[in-house]
Amino acid sequence: MEKRRFGKTGLETSLLGMGGFHLLEIHLEDVDRLLNYYLDNGGNYIETAENYGNGHSEEKIGRTIAGRRDDFVLATKTAGRDKRSYIKSLDGSLKRLKTDYVDLHIIHGIGAMHPEGGNRFDDLKSILAPEGALEAAEEARNKGKIRFLGISMHGQPDVLIESIKSYPFDAVMATINYFDRFNFPRIEEVLVPEALKKDMAIILMKPLADGYLWKSAADAFRYAMDQPVSVVVTGANNERMLREDMEYANNFKPLKEKQRQEIFENALELGEYVCRQCGKCMPCPENINITEICKLEGYFDRQMDNGIVDNASDYALRERLKHWYGGQDIARQAYEKLDKKADSCTGCGECLPRCPYNIDIIRKLKNIDYKLGDRTVY
Question: How confident is the model at residue 375 (pLDDT cuts 50, 70, 90)?
Fold first, then answer.
C-alpha cells in the first residue's frame, strides 16, 4: 500500500488508516482478526478516541495488538480542554491501549456547539490558556507520553482554521468527502492550503460522509485519496468491508480534472438539489447571494432535507445524519445577518437555466427560508 509523508513529523503512514469507532460494534475476537489483517496487508495507522464507548475501543485495541506496537502509528483523541482533564484522559488512554506512549494525540472536536451555549471559539481559548490542554500536552511530550500533537473538528471549519494559525500543531484532522465539499467548502479552500503551508499532516476523516456515500464507495474513496492528505481514515466492522477499502487504496490512481468534475456532475447523492457553489446562477435581479445562502443550508443540515421522500431508507439515513455536526445555530445566526434573505425571491426564474445541475433554485430557496428563517410551514 502507498505510504505518504506525515507532515513534518518524519513518520510515513499508509494511505488507508483504520478508525476505531466501529470496533465498538463487534466482538473482541473479530477486532483481533480485522486489526491483524490490516497490519499484515500494509496498513500502519490506527486511530481511536477515549470517548469511543467510554474507552472500550481503546481497550479492544490494547487487548489485541499491543504486542505489535512497533508495527503501526497509534493515534488517540481527547476531549480534554484544561490541563487536569487532558492529563487524566491521556493517562487513561495509555493504560487501556497497553502502551507507554502514543505517536499522535489529537485534541478532538474543537469548536463544537455546546448545549449550554457560549462562543464556539471558547474551546480554543481554553486549550491555549495557562493551565490549558496545550500546556499539559507539551509536558506530556517532554515526558515521552506523546510524540506529536494534533487537533480536529467536524463540519464548519472556522475554529479549526484559527487553531492551526494559533499553534504549530503536527497534524490536523477534518471532514473531507465529495458530498461535504459543498457544505463546508472552506475545508478544501482554506484549511487544507493553510495546513500544507505549515507542513502539518492532514488526516482525512469521513470519506463516506458518515456512511451517506455507501452506494458510491469506489468514487468516494478515490476522491478522498486524491486529496493532498497524509492518510484517509475510515472504520470497518467486518472483513468484507475492510478488504474492499484496502483494495481501493491498493488500486488508487489519481483523478484527472475531468473525472473530478464528472463526480460533481453525476454523483447520485448530490443530484439536482445540492448546490455545487459554482456561482453560475448569479447575479440575481433581487441581489440575493444564492450561493452563500445555499452554503448556510449546508451548515444547517448538509443540504440533506430536500423536502422529498421517495425512498424510506434513504430518508431515514438523511434524517439521522443531517444534524450530525450541530451547525443549526451557526447557520441561523449567519442567515439573520444577511441583507437579502431567501424570501426576497420573486420567482422570476432567471437563475434556473443558468444552473448546470438542473437545481430548482426557486424551490430550494423556499426550503432554505423555512429552515433558517424559522418559518412554521413551507
Answer: confident
Query: Average model confidence (pLDDT) for the chain?
Result: 95
Q: Count structural domains, the chain.
A: 2
CA atoms lying within 13 Å on the CB side of residue 192: 18
Asked if residue 338 and residue 255 are part of one domain, the reply reads no
Do residues 97 and 65 lie in contact, with contact meaning Cβ atoms separated by under 8 Å?
A: no
Output the pTM of the full model: 0.94
pLDDT at 114: 55
277 has a pLDDT exceeding 80: yes
Q: How far is residue 149's CA from residue 160's CA, in Å, rounded to a whole number?
A: 14
Q: How many CB atoms lie within 10 A of CB 216?
A: 21
343 domain-assigned? yes
Residues 59 and 163 in one domain: yes
**pLDDT grade, residue 117 (50/70/90)?**
low
DSSP alpha helix (H) spans, the chain: 28-40, 56-65, 83-97, 122-128, 133-142, 158-166, 186, 192-197, 217-225, 239-250, 257-266, 290-301, 312-321, 328-336, 361-372
| 75 and 174 assigned to the same domain | yes
146: left (phi over 0), alpha (psi -120 to 50) or beta: beta
Instruction: Give, rounded to a whole angstrom, the gap between the first and last alpha carbons of the chain.
Output: 51
Domain that holds residue 353: 290-372
Same structural domain for residues 48 and 125? yes
Looking at the domain assignment, is residue 274 inside a domain?
no
- pLDDT bucket at 377, cuts 50 / 70 / 90: confident
Sign of CA dihedral 240, 245, 97, 53: negative
Q: Are residues 309 and 238 in the same domain?
A: no
